[in-house]
Amino acid sequence: GNSVTQMEGPVTLSEEAFLTINCTYTATGYPSLFWYVQYPGEGLQLLLKATKADDKGSNKGFEATYRKETTSFHLEKGSVQVSDSAVYFCALSRGGGFKTIFGAGTRLFVKA
Amino acid sequence: NAGVTQTPKFQVLKTGQSMTLQCAQDMNHNSMYWYRQDPGMGLRLIYYSASEGTTDKGEVPNGYNVSRLNKREFSLRLESAAPSQTSVYFCASRDTQGNSYEQYFGPGTRLTVA
Question: What is the pLDDT of residue B83?
Fold first, then answer.
C-alpha cells in the first residue's frame, strides 16, 4: 500500500544552519507530494508541493525535489530561522483516491 | 474567504458526555476529513467524506460518528466520550478538481475528557 516515512525528530539546529529532513515514499502510480508545516497551536498548512517527477517545490526558502528514482522528497533550507521552529509533515496523494497519506511528522527546534 | 473553520476551539467533557464538533469550509471543496492528533502519533484519519452524501471510515472510527450536512459542513460526534478521546481534532477539506490534491486544515479543537 501507500506509505510515507520521514526522519524522526526532534531536530535541533542553530540559527542560520542548513536543514535537511528526509522523506521517502511508497506508492503505485504517480502521486503528488507535499510538505506541510504546523506551527505551535495551529493547524497544518501547505508549505510546498510537487506533482510530477523532477519537479521542485519551493516556498519561504524551503525546497524539495520529487525524485522518482529514489522515491524521495527531502525538505531543505539553506539557513533556518528561529521562526521556522515547527513540526513538518511529508505527505502524498493520488489522483482518483480521496485520502492523503501523512508521515509521522518531524519536530524542528531552531536556537538563536 | 475564511477557509476551514471549526467550533469550538476548546472543550472539556466528563466521561460519558456527548458532543458534536462542527466544521465548515467556504472553498466549494468536494472532500472533507476529520483527523485526530495525539502527542508523538502524527495525524490519524477518523472519517472522511469524498463528496456530499457519502461518508467512509478512516483508521480510527470507533467511538465517533459523522454527518455531511451539505457540501460546506461536516460534523463529528462523540456519543459517549472516553478519556482515550482526549486529543486535538482537525477538520480538513480538499479540492478534487484538477491535479492539486492539497488539503486545507482548520485551526483545531482541543478536547479533554476527564
Answer: 97
